[in-house]
Amino acid sequence: MFRHISDEQILTATCDVIVAHGYEGSTTKLIATTSDINEVTLFRKFGNKANLVLA
């Protein structure tokens, strides 16, 4: 079953993880887990951690 995950949900999780762990301590795996998505989905939507922060 397909479920929609909004960019806002992912970006909010990104901010939360970076505030908690700093930029260097934040991994895309941790961001994906916090967003409740697969890390592959994160890469497909944003490419990398730097693009997440820019978004």
Write the layout of secondary structure elements.
Blueprint: H1 7-25, H2 28-35, H3 39-46, H4 49-54
Helix pairs in contact: 1-2, 2-3
Strand tally: 0
CATH architecture: Orthogonal Bundle
What would you report as the Rg, rounded to the nearest angstrom? 10 Å
Number of domains: 1
Helix/strand-derived category reads mainly alpha
Helix content: over 70%
CATH H-level homologous superfamily name: Homeodomain-like
Give the mean pLDDT: 92
What proportion strand?
A: under 5%
Would you mind describing this structure in some detail?
The chain is mainly alpha-helical. The chain has a single domain (7-54), classed as Orthogonal Bundle (Arc Repressor Mutant, subunit A). It is built from four helices and no strands. It has helices spanning 7-25, 28-35, 39-46, 49-54. Helix 1 runs antiparallel to helix 2 and helix 2 crosses helix 3 (39-46). The longest helix is centred in the first third of the chain and has 19 residues, at 7-25. It is globular and about 35 Å long. The protein starts with 6 loop residues before the first helix and ends with a helix.
